[in-house]
């Protein structure tokens, strides 16, 4: 009798009609499908949000950047923009031989902070750092946000990054430090050269 009672307790569909059993199973399957659909939708929504953050940083759209951060975008995302920015938007010093992007390399693509530093945006840099963006992130050529900031020629952005822990001695794959990527236009006078050297150190390359 005890065995029979245990059996009855473990099999709740016993005694139900076939129609009732099918309805119960159907409801369970519908619930699982619904949860899966919600999960997929959430992932798609997050991906679009991250895409908006990257687009805002590439285009130097500070309002859109702030909105994406407030909505929870991942500040270290590198997708879906995994290709190197077009030559027209990249400083010439970052397009020299040995600095071109390699397709399908590890850490492919730029982070939002790299894009915004490349644009020389003080406001954008501050927003991303407040959101805890990684100041020492590397791309596939081992370029850091400070390299991009130096190449933009905006001394204040470099100063902000250094204040948050950027390493001015960090070298990329070609052995270049941030100081080596400062545009020549920013070094025309002795005063300008002294300012950059005081911040980033001397250039390792002529």
List keywords for this structure.
mainly alpha, Serine Threonine Protein Phosphatase 5, Tetratricopeptide repeat, 50% helix, elongated, disordered N terminus, Ankyrin_rpt
Can you offer a commentary on this structure?
- This protein is mainly α and 206 residues long.
- It has a single domain, classed as Serine Threonine Protein Phosphatase 5, Tetratricopeptide repeat.
- Helix content is 50%, strand content 0%.
- Helix 4 runs parallel beside helix 6.
- The longest helix has 41 residues.
- InterPro entries: Ankyrin_rpt (IPR002110), Ankyrin_rpt-contain_sf (IPR036770).
- Keywords: ANK repeat, Repeat.
Q: CATH class, anyone? A: Mainly Alpha
Tell me what portion of residues adopts beta-strand conformation.
under 5%
- Count of DSSP H/I helices: 8
Number of strands: 0
Give the name of the CATH superfamily: Ankyrin repeat-containing domain
Any idea what the shape is? elongated
Q: Main beta sheet, described?
A: none
Judged by helices, strands and strand pairing, the structural class is mainly alpha
Q: What number is the mean pLDDT? A: 80
- The radius of gyration over CA amounts to 27 Å
Q: What portion of residues is helical?
A: 40-55%
What is the CATH fold-level name? Serine Threonine Protein Phosphatase 5, Tetratricopeptide repeat
Task: Based on the coordinates given, report the CATH architecture.
Answer: Alpha Horseshoe
Euclidean distance between termini CA atoms: 94 Å
> What is the count of distinct domains?
1
Uncertain segments are 1-13, 34-38, 81-89, 101-106
Strand-and-helix sequence, N→C?
A: HHHHHHHH
Organism: Zooxanthella nutricula
Keywords: ANK repeat, Repeat
ANK repeats: 108-140, 141-173
Pfam family, one: Ank_2
């Amino acid at each position: 009798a005890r065995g029979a009672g245990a059996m009855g307790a473990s099999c709740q569909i016993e005694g139900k009609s076939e129609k009732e059993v099918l309805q119960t199973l159907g409801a369970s399957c519908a619930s699982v499908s619904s949860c899966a659909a919600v999960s997929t939708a959430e992932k798609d929504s997050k991906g679009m949000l991250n895409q908006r953050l990257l687009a805002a940083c590439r285009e130097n759209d500070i309002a859109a950047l702030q909105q994406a951060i407030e909505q929870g975008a991942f500040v270290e995302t590198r997708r879906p923009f995994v290709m190197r920015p077009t030559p027209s938007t990249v400083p010439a010093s970052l397009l020299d031989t040995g600095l071109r992007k390699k397709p399908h390399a590890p850490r492919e693509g730029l982070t939002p902070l790299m894009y915004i530093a490349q644009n020389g945006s003080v406001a954008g840099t501050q927003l991303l750092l407040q959101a805890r963006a990684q100041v020492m992130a590397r791309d596939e050529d081992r370029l850091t946000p400070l390299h991009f900031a130096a190449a933009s020629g905006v001394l204040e952005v470099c100063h902000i990054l250094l204040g948050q822990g950027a390493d001015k001695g960090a070298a990329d794959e070609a052995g270049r430090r941030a100081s080596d990527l400062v545009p020549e236009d920013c070094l025309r006078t002795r005063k300008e050269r002294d300012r950059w050297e005081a911040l980033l150190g001397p250039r390792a390359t002529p």
